Amino acid sequence: MIQLISPENNSIISLKTPIQLEFESDIEANAQIPYWCTRKSNEFGVCSFPAPVHFSWESDEENNIFSLSDTIEFDHIIRRIGCTNQCDIYNLLLGKTYYWKVNDSEIRSFTVEMSTPRWLMVEGTWNVRDIGGYTNLDGKKIKQGMIYRGAELDGYAEGRVITDEGRRALREDLGIRFDLDLRSSGEVTKKQSPIGDDVKYVNIPSESYGEFIGWKSNTKKFIEFLTDRENYPMYIHCAVGADRTGSLILVICGLLRMTEKDLTEEYEQSTISFPDGNRTRHEWTFDAVLNQLKPYGDNFHDRIYNYLISCGITEEQINTIRKIMIED
């Protein structure tokens, strides 16, 4: 006999933790408070990990099979694991309805709240999130599950070492096919992806902020990777996933016509990942990006477009990327 307990049928589930909700409650002010994350991390631990969906049930059996699907027919299984009477599941899509059961129990459904950003749990690293889920200036959704940003996976610079569970999440939950590493050659231990030998790996050392914008040959290479559908889903990272990664993601989000409000707040989410300081639009480093872009147009999105054209990216390539990354 199986009695499902949680989540309740037809419930709405948030994947945000208390610290993430607190940060977002006044992101304008909190992003400017020095070491905001330091105090909070002492209370909450790693602040960039999302909340799981917690499943629980009562059963006469010690060994049960939990099944999660995105179809009520269970013809597409997301996770199937053996457990006693509870389990936690991470990395579900925002705004999507899922179905779950244990053994041959009743089927329950729940929907994940559509609340960006989509934080990811990848054990052994942090500051991992999906750039998708946002509605752009044209009223269209940027696709989830295509481009992920985060910190390093091999622990050279910051001590983060991907675990077996973290590797499983990258391979199975996120389906990573391309690992784009922005670190310098001195930060890289092996010219291969820790995710797996079958994952395409490219290391191109990058600068950040104003220096990033000035290195046009690098920008051209980065953006050209986005024109190949075989490179998705991709994981873009440097050492901590904030500065070099943040500079590239800023340009990509501009290309996808993410609103300036969402774009800057997405950038500032890295504040809650590191106890050593802030990443805020009010810092001189962020201003360095904006100042370097000013000659390229009258508004941010025109500047991004014209900057990319000046890097040698064609209008056709920009349209290809938008077609890949933006929902119809």
Question: In order across it, which strands form the biggest sheet?
Answer: 9-10-11-14-12-13
Strand segment count: 14
Taken as a percent bin, the fraction of beta residues is 15-25%
Give the overall shape, derived from the CA principal axes: globular
User: Structural class, from secondary structure content?
Assistant: alpha/beta
Percent of residues in helices:
25-40%
CATH class of the largest domain: Alpha Beta
CATH superfamily caption of the largest domain: Protein tyrosine phosphatase superfamily
Say what the CATH topology of the largest domain is. Answer: Protein-Tyrosine Phosphatase, Chain A
Q: How many domains is the backbone divided into?
A: 2
Task: Give Rg in angstroms.
Answer: 20 Å
Main β sheet profile: 6 strands, mixed
Separate helix tally: 11
- Could you state the order of secondary-structure elements as H and E? EEHHHEEEEEEEEEHEEHHEHHHHH
The CATH architecture of the largest domain can be named as Alpha-Beta Complex
- Low-confidence runs (pLDDT<50, min 5 residues)? none
Write the layout of secondary structure elements.
Elements: E1 2-6, E2 11-13, H1 18-25, H2 27-30, H3 36-44, E3 53-59, E4 64-69, E5 77-83, E6 86-89, E7 97-102, E8 108-112, E9 118-119, E10 129-130, E11 147-150, H4 164-173, E12 178-181, E13 200-203, H5 209-214, H6 216-225, E14 234-237, H7 244-255, H8 260-268, H9 284-293, H10 300-310, H11 315-325
Parallel strand pairs: 2-8, 11-14, 12-13, 12-14
Antiparallel strand pairs: 1-3, 3-6, 4-5, 4-7, 7-8, 9-10, 10-11
Offer a concise description of the structure:
This protein has 328 residues and is an alpha/beta fold. It has eleven helices and 14 strands. The strands form three sheets. Strands 9-10-11-14-12-13 form a six-stranded mixed β-sheet, with helices on one face. Strands 2-8-7-4-5 form a five-stranded mixed β-sheet, with no helix packed on it.
